Amino acid sequence: MSTLAELVHDKRPARRSAKPNRSVRIGRRPIGAYICAALLMVLFLFPLAFLVNTALKSPAEFISNPIGIVHHPNWENFPIAWEMGNFGSYFLNTVLYTVAGAGIGTAIALVMGFPVARGYIRGARLWNALFVVVMFLPNALMTQFHLLIQLHLYNTQLGYIMMLGVGVGVGPLLFRGFVLSLPRELDEAAAVDGIGYWRYLLTFILPLAKPALATVFILQAVWIWNEIILATILLADPSKWPIATGLNAFKGLYSNNWALLSAATLIVAVPLMVGYVFIQKYLVNGVVGAVKG
């Protein structure tokens, strides 16, 4: 790859006159927006509340009143579902797959998104179009299946992590949008100081792009946590299953016990909901930065 100074010199844009910013004041409160937000909140929270209500019922109470409010909460459904579904082992597997797969996908988004956004590689527009097209293409399951067999990685955690890592999805496109919001003068200043491309990418762009990279990691992690199709095809050993596949097997065994099944569903979903409370700031900042770009 060419040096950073050569890339910046070739892609230096023409200077444009700055336009004054005009502030717009909104005199009225958006009452309609509050009403729509309240309706959406009810729409999304009602299924969760119904799931919690079902998970706290005993089998006898569920049969007598399936849709009624629980009167005697049965908290034992959760430890019973955890033990009978072997979710402890599935949980550890999923943490490994999520951290490794999302980490690989985020690294790919960083390495691919920056040069495409700056136009430092040939066919940058073609690569940008490819990022968009890939999101609409179906997953090549049979190709991945035969590839792992040829590499002797079928039914291995390493092979499954590799397939998760390359499924970057919207990551490069989102990171490209964030890079466009960064001033090109940073590249020019680094080129004047003689900083190399990879050093500039890892020591300057990487710290500045933490919100965008955190967003890419979060989106990738949510997909991996809920992924079930690849695991069903690529992992034949139940001891290597992620938690979503374990929940699907649990559903097949206890499909008639709705209270126990609801408790197992909450066990799978709660880690994502709790994690979102702590990482929503990074998610919003990364998406806003990408939209501005």
Written description of the protein model:
The protein is mostly helical and about 290 residues long. It has two domains: about 30-65; about 80-290, MetI-like fold, CATH 1.10.3720. About 70% of the residues lie in helices and about 0% in strands. The chain has 15 helices and no strands. The radius of gyration is 24 Å and the shape is globular. The two termini are about 25 Å apart. The mean pLDDT is about 85.
Characteristic terms for this protein:
15 helices; MetI-like fold; 293 residues; mainly alpha; 71% helix; 0% strand; 2 domains
Give a nutshell description of this structure.
The chain folds into 2 domains: 36 residues; 214 residues, Orthogonal Bundle (MetI-like fold), CATH 1.10.3720. It contains 15 helices and no strands.
